Amino acid sequence: MSTLPNSVQVLIELFARFPGIGRKTAQRLAFYLLKAKREEAVALAKAIIDVKDRIFKCSTCNNIAEVDPCPICTDPRRDHSIICVVQEPMDVLAIEKTGHFRGLYHVLGGVLSPLNGIGPDDLNIDGLLQRLESIQEVILAINPTRDGDTTALYLSKLIKSRNIKVTRIAQGLPVGIELEFADEMTLTHALEGRTNL
């Protein structure tokens, strides 16, 4: 039986559900909040509620946004003839940090994974295909994993059948790394060294 008050125990259990947060880190976070001023805890709670209430997926690219379509999709300074396809919104953030890509994005929402029951209908592939009318190049910036490679090949076949150039970011990224953890220089070189599929 825990000697902690129930409300603290519940908070620890909720923190422990976060990716990369173990039990000890969850305890440290909970005890940090106990020591923090009430205003700080209220600000955190409000930020969490705001994210759940105000953030949604852009109807064009499937990235997270507070307006629809998102600011990237509506920016006239971006190159609207190139789409960079990524798995998740965190990947858009990683590529944007490089400052070297000025095209549009399309977020799939994952990768094909037959072993996990994820097929083409579970991803935002139809949304991508509907956007290809005036597109000259599609860059596949999908994590270089087995499922990522399968997804890239699947998309490449669909897109090439429409006579659109398909490239993939260079394999300067270590195999198995997720884009959000790659440094900006590595991502810059990977984008600049993309190859035809």
In short:
The protein is 43% helix and 12% strand. It has helices spanning 6-16, 23-35, 38-54, 71-74, 89-98, 125-130, 146-160, 184-192, and strands at residues 56-57, 64-65, 82-86, 104-107, 137-140, 165-168, 195-196.
How would you describe the overall organization of this protein?
The protein is α/β, with parallel strands linked by helices and 197 residues long. 43% of the residues lie in helices and 12% in strands. The protein has a five-stranded mixed β-sheet. Strand 1 and strand 2 (64-65) form a beta hairpin. Helix 1 (6-16) packs across helix 2 (23-35) and helix 5 (89-98) crosses helix 8 (184-192). It starts with 5 loop residues before the first helix and ends with a strand.
Indicate the CATH architecture of the largest domain. 3-Layer(aba) Sandwich
Alpha-carbon distance between the termini?
58 Å
The secondary-structure class comes to: alpha/beta
Order of helices and strands: HHHEEHEHEHEHEHE
CATH topology category name of the largest domain = Dna Topoisomerase Vi A Subunit, Chain: A, domain 2
- Assigned CATH class of the largest domain: Alpha Beta
Strand content: 5-15%
Helix content: 40-55%
The neighbouring-strand order within the major sheet is: 4-3-5-6-7
Number of helical elements: 8
The largest pleated sheet is described as: 5 strands, mixed
Could you tell me the radius of gyration in angstroms?
Answer: 20 Å
Shape verdict: elongated
Q: Return the average pLDDT rounded to an integer.
A: 92
Which stretches are low in confidence, meaning pLDDT under 50 for 5 or more residues running? none
Total count of domains: 2
